[in-house]
Amino acid sequence: MIRVLVSDSMASEGIEVFRKTPGIEVDVITKHTPEELKELVASYDGLVVRSASKITKEILDSADKLTVIGRAGAGVDNIDVEAASKKGIVVMNTPGGNTVTTGEHAIAMMLSLARKIPQATASMKAGKWEKSRFMGNEYCNKTLGIIGIGRIGSVVADRAKGLKMNVIAYDPFISQEAAEKMGITLASLDEIYGSADFISVHTPKNKETTGMINAAAFAKMKKGVFVINCARGGIVNEKDLYDALVSGQVAGAALDVFEEEPTKNIDLISLDNVICTPHLGASTDEAQTTVAVAIAEQMVDYLLKGEIRYAVNFPAVSADLMAAITPYLALAEKLGKFQAQIVSGGIEEINIEYSGEILKYDVAPITIALLKGLLTPILNENVNYINAPVIAKERGINVKESRSSAEGDYRSMITLTLKTSEGESITAGALFGRRDPRIVRINQFTVDVIPEGHLLMLYNHDKPGVIGNIGTAIGSANINIARMHWSRLQAEQKAMVVFSTDTPVDAQLLKKLKETPNVISVQELDM
Ligand SMILES: NC(=O)C1=CN([C@@H]2O[C@H](COP(=O)(O)OP(=O)(O)OC[C@H]3O[C@@H](n4cnc5c(N)ncnc54)[C@H](O)[C@@H]3O)[C@@H](O)[C@H]2O)C=CC1
Ligand SMILES: O=C(O)CCC(=O)C(=O)O
To answer: Using CA atoms, how far apart are residues 13 and 4, in angstroms rounded to an integer?
Structure first.
């Protein structure tokens, strides 16, 4: 039975998806300390979180069964994705499922902030009628500066335009053309700071954005600016924000997210000009149902069929793309596995050259399959599509992809060049009949080897009688030869032969083959 743990509160519709799937058992345990969670995850195959559970490396250390973590939402900064990848765990999220809801929350926060609605509500509930205390500001014709114009940022921009605001945005990863399509003017950060009356942050939290809105940024902003953060705590430095709010440089702040959650920064949230919500950006019935069902369906498909959708640590592969590239994935994995067994020395660089029809597709997953095949025979650890690139990086292996438009003998070809501490070695693979993997080149030799089962590869001097002697030795060891392919370099008087045998070759026969006259080297390969 496949076991899934839901460790944060999640809409019942999502839990139902797991419950009604035969072969899957789901537990919902939302109250736990980090130590308890660490103990819990050890016995589950899948884990669903929102933002409350912090999935650290320490927690993952005990997660030996875990193959997938699903985030019912967008941000995965509460998950140590690198540690998960290293363990071969897929991390998936549901981008888009709560976009509109969170964009609406940012707008609601902006409107409430400038019209002091929460403060006025609290005052009235305290029995007061303080009409002159809560003088507000109009939005019409004011400038809204959006930092990060992705999914949520663009919803905010769209709604703000409806409020007749002048919208400008900073996002180094969005082209002018894409911004124009959204009807938004791109600006530099300094231009935003210098001209915006409202600034709303919608970037992910990462090394570049952490602390991005700090004292230096506040100093550049227009005096009396309003700041809204419904993205992630820590993008706006809370200490610097406090100072800017107290000095009046910032007229007000609307915060949904905090450096620490639940926040202990009571000084900040107690300020009169701060309004706040406890990370409610995505909290609508609609969004929670959507993300819960989406993540449960994605996880079920992964756990039962190995289908990967919206993984943050694996390239996006649609069902159509997957169907088209599956034979290439198999070929790349075989090629990597073959090459790993014939090279010697520590691998320093891998160069993968793609040519032919394969170039129609995104080759990123094919490269990962090749790395998986290559690293599997070399390492004791369990290598999969998720951790293969991480392991290669950790081992200092430089992975290069290139594309060749040269017309070759095959519809598609993958050529793998390995640079090791002992030299360079090249193999190439192609598909036979568009489906069946073949090794078509081993260094200077042109071959046609089916990379399957037990292979025995011999280099020899190109002299009469060698193949006969080898065949006799194999036959006398009672090993049946299923296939045989040989190739020669006439000018160099060298040849190679690859046998496919029904059973593995033992050490005694290997020794005997190595001692056979004119045999240069012998290698057995397990495919
Ligand atoms: N408060 C809440 O409940 C929720 C918060 N979020 C948060 O909202 C944020 C945005 O989410 P989405 O729009 O879905 O993400 P997205 O990935 O669609 O958009 C993020 C945008 O930020 C831009 N960006 C990245 N680095 C930047 C930088 N240094 N400067 C300026 N722009 C930069 C990217 O190019 C991208 O366009 C994330 O932090 C996410 O975690 C998301 C959902 C709910
Ligand atoms: O699950 C939640 O309530 C928070 C959503 C969120 O922050 C996200 O999706 O990034």
So the answer is: 15
Q: Whose CA is nearest to atom 3 of ligand 2?
A: 282
Reported confidence tier of residue 135, pLDDT bands at 50, 70, 90: very high
Q: Is residue 228 a contact partner of residue 108, using CB atoms and an 8 Å limit?
A: no
pLDDT value of residue 174:
87
Q: Is the CB of 313 under 6 A from ligand 2?
A: no
Give 78-125 pLDDT, tens digit per residue. Answer: 999 999 998 889 999 998 999 999 999 999 999 999 999 999 999 999
- Which ligand lies nearest the alpha carbon of 170? 1
ipTM of the shown complex: 0.99
Nearest-CA residue for ligand 1 atom 23 is 148
Nearest CA to ligand 2 atom 7: 75
CATH number of 2-96+286-305: 3.40.50.720
CATH 3.40.50.720 in the chain, residue ranges: 2-96+286-305, 99-276
pTM of the model as a whole: 0.81
Q: Is 317 in the pocket of ligand 2 (CB under 6 A)?
A: no
Residues with catalytic function: 232, 261, 279
Pocket residue to mutate for ligand 1, from 81, 93, 99, 171, most atoms within 8 A of Cβ? 171
Contact residues of ligand 1, CB 6 A cut-off: 73-75, 95, 98-99, 102, 147-153, 170-174, 202-205, 208-209, 230-232, 256-257, 279, 281-282
DSSP secondary structure letters along 130-184: -TTTT-----TT-EEEEE--SHHHHHHHHHHHHTT-EEEEE-TTS-HHHHHHTT-
Report whether pLDDT(485) > 90. Answer: yes
- Answer yes or no: is the C-beta of 74 below 6 A from any ligand 2 atom: yes
Integer Cα distance of 274 and 254 in angstroms = 6
CA 463 – CA 229 distance, rounded (Å): 77
Distance from C-alpha of 364 to C-alpha of 371, rounded to nearest angstrom = 11
> What is the three-class DSSP state of 69?
strand
Q: Name the DSSP letter for residue 231.
A: S
Cα distance between residue 61 and residue 421, in whole Å = 33
Query: For residue 298, how far is its CA from the centre of ligand 2 (angstroms)?
Result: 17
**CATH 2.60.40.10 holds for 99-276:** no
List, for residues 177-225, the tens digit of each pLDDT value: 888 888 899 999 999 999 999 999 999 998 899 999 999 999 999 999 9
Take atom 37 of ligand 1 and give the residue whose Cα is closest: 150
Q: What CA–CA distance (Å, rounded) separates 298 from 290?
A: 12
